[in-house]
Amino acid sequence: MNELILIVDDEVNTLKLLGMALEREGYRIAAAQDANQALARIDAQVPDLLILDVMMPGVSGLELVQRLRARRDTATLPVILLSAKGEVADRVAGLQAGADEYLVKPIDTSELMARVASLVERTRRLRADGGGRPTKVISFIGAKGGTGTTNVALNVGVAFASPETEAVAVELRGHAGTFPTLLGMKAVKGLDGLVEMDPRAITADEVGRRLVRHTTGLQVLCAPDRIGGGRLGMPQAEAILLSLVGKADYLVVDLPSAPTPSVHAAIPRSQAVVLMVEPTRDCVDRASAMASFLQGLAVGGAVLQSVVVTRSPIASPVSMSEIEERVAWPVAGAIPPAPDAFARAAMLGRPILQIEPDGSASQAIRQLAGILH
Q1: What string of H, E and C letters represents the secondary structure of the chain?
Q2: What is the pTM of this model?
């Protein structure tokens, strides 16, 4: 056992006690007393696990976790937060910031060692399954239903996929999936069964068996296509995402346009969030509220952008400048109206990038993929 564990705490006695306990278990130890020292050590060598005190002078532990989750090289770094605050709201804040575990001081050493061993073993499995490659997680969510979110997310995934770049797209919802229809696939297992499964049984191998590689090179994990299936809970959604991180360079997540457990699981783990907006008054109003909600979930450093989708010509569309002002997120791109092309692509079960590679919608999607790259 030679995993490197970085302990960050402004109390020297805590550093010594935890360091000695971890060294007895065979781990290598590094220490820091504030966020700046921690970042310097991480820049020199990314540890296998981080034990981090919440209350520190200057940058707090919560802020440091948010910064690390926004970096590709530390997006999946296991983090255990330590805090004297044990209220439910405090624990929730720690987990939403991106921590894997939250322990209340005074720390029971045996419990801490058990949590450390569990997270280290999880990291070993992920590296064995995915080669430990850094994965950029990009979540797409509509301001409301029917904004073309799934179609755009899927085609951005296709744009990412190449012989040199591995990309995965997942419909993170418990029912009503449309990936199979849009890609012309049948009898796809996808998330069937995972919705009701104990999250501890949702391993990288289990999820990997359900991935399907499309002819474009994109790997997809489809939601069940039935209506009224099981509700995808937050523990299951988190386990699915964790199993996919490390398998590709890009993980494109298609989310429902509602504050579901899937959204709560995906947004804090995303390095980029794309909000799909139609240039109509009602949709822009909804997008403004949705942006505020998502901003509260996203970690610091995550790139928050909106994309304007015009599914069919609109007589008096809301201007780009007004959308940026109302939503308070920069507009990363605009998908022009191409209803016939999208309908033909869906009928043929092929991405629009294949059906009309030189069309205006395809060009806009490739430009968006380039911005999100």
Answers
A1: CCCEEEEECCCHHHHHHHHHHHHHCCCEEEEECCHHHHHHHHHHCCCCEEEEECCCCCCCHHHHHHHHHCCCCCCCCCEEEEECCCCHHHHHHHHHHCCCEEEECCCCHHHHHHHHHHHHHHHHHHHHHHCCCCCEEEEEEECCCCCCHHHHHHHHHHHHCCCCCCEEEEECCCCCCCHHHHHCCCCCCCCCCCCCCCHHHCCHHHHHCCCEECCCCCEEECCCCCCCCCCCCHHHHHHHHHHHCCCCCEEEEEECCCCCHHHHHHHHHCCEEEEEECCCHHHHHHHHHHHHHHHHHCCCCCEEEEEEECCCCCCCCCCHHHHHHHHCCCEEEEECCCHHHHHHHHHHCCCHHHHCCCCHHHHHHHHHHHHHC
A2: 0.69
